[in-house]
């Protein structure tokens, strides 16, 4: 899924995002990677270098941010 702001930044969110829109959107720019809350597109935007983003994704793929066993949020 994509949405575009007036600045011509293409925002993308996962095709797995739920109907209520509770997800983040990501945009790739010449300067790096931008992340925002899809429920508040005019709100705060986080900015990362491509190296920071790659390091974050590597840690996600490694399972470093997985919820602990028995975590109530993980059971949702």
Automatic annotation (TrEMBL):
Residues 10-61 form the DUF397 domain. It comes from the Bacteria. This is DUF397 domain-containing protein. It comes from Nonomuraea dietziae.
């Amino acid at each position: 899924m994509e949405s575009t702001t007036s600045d011509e930044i293409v925002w993308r969110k996962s095709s797995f995002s739920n109907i209520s829109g509770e997800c983040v959107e990501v945009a790739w720019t010449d300067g790096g990677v931008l992340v925002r809350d899809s429920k508040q597109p005019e709100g705060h935007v986080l900015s990362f270098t491509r190296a920071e983003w790659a390091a974050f994704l590597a840690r996600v793929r490694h399972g470093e941010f997985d919820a602990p066993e028995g975590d109530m949020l993980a059971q949702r």
